[in-house]
Amino acid sequence: MKTLIIASFFIAVSSAAFLSSKTVKFKDLLPEQRIVGGELASSGQFPYQAALYITGPDGNAWFCGGSIISDQWILTAAHCPQGSVKVEVTLGSTNFQVLEKGGTHDIALIKLPSKIKFTSHVSPIKLAARADPVHTYDGDVAIASGWGKTSDAALTAVDDLHFAPLTVISNEECSETFNADDSTLCTSTKGKISVCSGDSGGPLVSTTTNEQIGIASFVSAKGCEKEEPAGFVRVTFYLDWIKNETGLDV
């Protein structure tokens, strides 16, 4: 397990956010210190999962997820690093302790100043195919993973990585609750299975193609257990932007 401490970066916003770093420090992260209705992940089960520990200018810190999409790029939600001065990126771990803190174009890229050395526990996830930009994934089952709250009553994120299978619903169904446009992908939360606070920025991966199709973005203001749809950024909507910013062949 490695932790990259990104101490300085800038954000340039066009249709989304982009972060770049000039300095990095490696250190071991001691395992001292989820997904609502999910299961405990085993070591190495989600090698593409990144943990982001983010610090603001006032010293307050919060936690988000992300995904490894290449040896130098992390994909996450734009609201995660917003207003931050430092981002710690932890890879290859299912155990992490953090401080908990409590849209449109909610997508960001973090460029690491040094390349990741891939292992069985740290490796990239393939993004949804460019050939399928209009694929809705309606009815597909996808896996969400993260360290977020396990219930509305929980006060903090959990120690260990959890995951849950979620069923993608149509934007028409989602729009009965939220304003879901073409950049949004929604999942059912029936059975009180959902992403929650602390899972933001984490990946949603299709069980059919093993490709990332979404980035955890929002849940109902009523709570994570209210069985209202969970919202994700639709990855295929942003493939051109990701390619332009990273140069990756997506």
Automatic annotation (TrEMBL):
Residues 35-247 form the Peptidase S1 domain. The keyword Ligase does not apply. Keywords: Disulfide bond, Hydrolase, Protease, Serine protease, Signal, Zymogen. The keyword Hydrolase applies. GO terms for biological process: proteolysis. It comes from the Eukaryota. SUPFAM superfamilies: Trypsin-like serine proteases. SMART domains: Tryp_SPc. Residues 1-16 form the signal peptide. Transmembrane segments: none annotated. PROSITE patterns: TRYPSIN_DOM, TRYPSIN_HIS, TRYPSIN_SER. Gene3D superfamilies: Trypsin-like serine proteases. CDD domains: Tryp_SPc (cd00190). One of its GO terms (molecular function) is serine-type endopeptidase activity. This is Peptidase S1 domain-containing protein. It comes from Megaselia scalaris (Humpbacked fly). The lineage of its organism: Eukaryota, Metazoa, Ecdysozoa, Arthropoda, Hexapoda.
